[in-house]
Design goal:
seven-stranded mixed β-sheet
């Protein structure tokens, strides 16, 4: 009975749990989660093999995918996952930065808690340090992307994002992604939609065989015998292209063979009339969301019209956006406003599979498709994640055009600024500010360690160089030296650093504010009654 217990649990149901002073347990859980994703940071980041609840295998070093498939249960660690998800929604890249920074902030806070510093003082110091870090970040801007439609302006930031997932292919993929984004970018770059850049995956060959199609690609063959159309006029139907059927049931009484022939001839005449009227409008490609009847395909082939089936409604919408067509609900003659236009529609064989390309020869088509090749499905999935990161970086730059130095340079400069700021404070929160500042070393240290070099030596060297005024120096992962990240073309969007620091700080403050965990009794279904048999159906 609950009233026989003592303390807070007297007011709660049997099965409920109460954890007092959980701060160190929460910090430990968050630190362990951060340790999982931390080693996946940077070009030489290590992969994680994750098998999810559906027994699907993932081999990746994309932090967003790892956290999504882990299904974290600990309530404090879930706060870090929520912060990473918010980063993914806001910027689309930098989830590993959020989790790694948050884990390091909490590790440093643990030392202060064990020293006897009250969590309130740590929280106050972290709030001050977080505000100062975001303020100092404005002064560390290394440049801006003035024209989003110029390749050379955009490629460095996209190359840096892709290098952390596909090191070695970053230059090739960055050029593909840049061309695809510029091709799909409207005259006002702020209206750029990431859904306008698609990815079509075909296994076989190597990643270097991937290519860009200005338009839309479907990974299937055409329905009829027409496989190549130039200067295409496209009609899109959401219904079946077949003999129209009545909505009510009826009976046809046929008394002779002549009547049977006339009945079949009438069906042929109806579908031929529909197809011929459509052909007279200049349509030479028909796309349907449903099936093509045999009789309809016969007449489509006779009139030289290409038949394409697209099963997915989402793909249908993208196709309409690519060619400028409207979806028609019934099989009828389309008006000129309903038709889409396309320079060429071709069925080509790639890696033993047929694909249909709706290609626009001009540079301003509304949709781009990157056809990626790779040895296995897992490689294709990983390349797709890298391309998604690159597209999201382009989107982030349309909102905020500022760039900052990558390779851990920005974090090391923030560490220097915040350490000076902490020394100028006189209260107990100065200890928290110093610990917050030293946490930024984790990025440079991790980049060095996963590349096989001594992290402590490299961080010490970078500290000396930043104090000497070399504010853009970061980690050279190739040989374990330091280099000017801006001159080396390793830059990150300002938005990635801003939101990474902000979300990590907010998540850490939330974890430190918790002094009790109260878990209510888990809801369940009605209890089974073993004494009563189930009703027989």
């Amino acid at each position: 009975m609950s009233f026989m217990r003592q303390g807070v649990q007297t007011m709660m149901k049997d099965g409920s749990q109460l954890v007092d002073e959980p701060i160190l347990k929460n910090i430990h859980a968050c630190r362990e989660l951060a340790k999982i994703t931390r080693s996946s940071m940077g070009p030489y980041g290590l992969c994680k093999m994750v098998i999810n609840h559906l027994n699907k295998l993932f081999v990746t070093h994309d932090a967003a995918t790892i956290l999504r498939e882990l299904e974290v249960e600990h309530p404090a660690a879930k706060l870090l996952v929520m912060a990473a998800n918010a980063m993914q929604e806001e910027v689309g890249d930098g989830t590993n930065l959020v989790v790694t920074l948050a884990g390091e902030f909490l590790s440093q806070a643990e030392a202060l808690v064990r020293m006897g510093l009250h969590p309130s003082d740590i929280i106050e110091g972290y709030k001050k340090a977080g505000a100062k870090a975001l303020e100092a970040l404005d002064a560390l801007v290394s440049g801006t992307v003035d024209d989003m439609l110029l390749r050379d302006n955009v490629i460095p930031a996209i190359r840096t994002a892709i290098a952390s997932k596909q090191y070695g292919y970053e230059s090739f993929l960055a050029e593909l992604v840049t061309d695809a984004c510029i091709n799909a970018c409207p005259s006002n770059p702020k209206s750029f939609n990431v859904d306008n850049v698609r990815v079509a995956k075909l296994d076989g060959e190597s990643i270097l065989s991937s290519r860009l199609v200005r338009g839309f690609v479907i990974t299937r063959s055409a329905e009829g015998s027409v496989n190549h159309i130039k200067k295409a006029k496209v009609a899109v139907f959401s219904c079946a292209v077949d003999v129209p059927s009545t909505e009510t049931k009826g009976t046809a009484l046929i008394e002779s063979a002549e009547q049977l022939l006339q009945y079949s001839k009438k069906e042929e005449d109806v579908i031929e009339e529909i197809i011929s009227n459509i052909a007279k409008t200049g349509v030479n490609v028909i796309v349907s969301n449903s099936n093509f009847g045999d009789l309809a395909l016969h007449f489509l082939n006779r009139y030289g019209i290409m038949a394409v089936k697209v099963s997915s409604k989402f793909e249908m919408r993208r196709l309409c956006a690519a060619v400028g067509a409207r979806t028609l609900a019934r099989l009828d003659v389309p008006s000129m406003e309903d038709l889409g236009a396309c320079d060429s529609v071709d069925v080509t064989e790639v890696g033993g599979k047929n694909i249909i390309s709706f290609a626009q020869d001009k540079d301003d088509s509304k949709l781009s498709t990157i056809v990626i090749r790779g040895a296995t499905q897992n490689v294709l999935d990983d390349v797709e994640r890298a391309i998604d990161d690159g597209i999201n970086v382009f989107k982030a730059l349309t909102k905020d055009k500022r760039l900052v130095a990558g390779a851990g340079a920005t974090e090391m400069e923030l560490q220097k600024i915040l350490t000076t700021f902490g020394e100028a404070n006189r209260g107990l929160d100065q200890y928290a500010i110093r610990k917050y500042a030293s946490s930024f070393e984790v990025v440079a240290r991790t980049l060095a360690e996963v590349s096989g070099f001594n992290g402590t030596d490299l961080v010490t060297r970078l500290e000396a160089e930043h104090h000497a005024g070399k504010c853009h120096n970061g980690v050279q992962v190739e040989d374990g030296s330091t280099f000017d990240a801006v001159e080396g073309g390793v830059v990150d969007p300002y938005a990635t650093k801003f939101w990474g620091i902000k979300l990590a700080t907010d998540a850490v403050i939330t974890v430190l504010q918790v002094d009790q965990i109260i878990i209510a009794k888990q809801a369940g279904g009605p209890k089974q009654r073993p004494d009563q048999a189930r009703d027989e159906e």
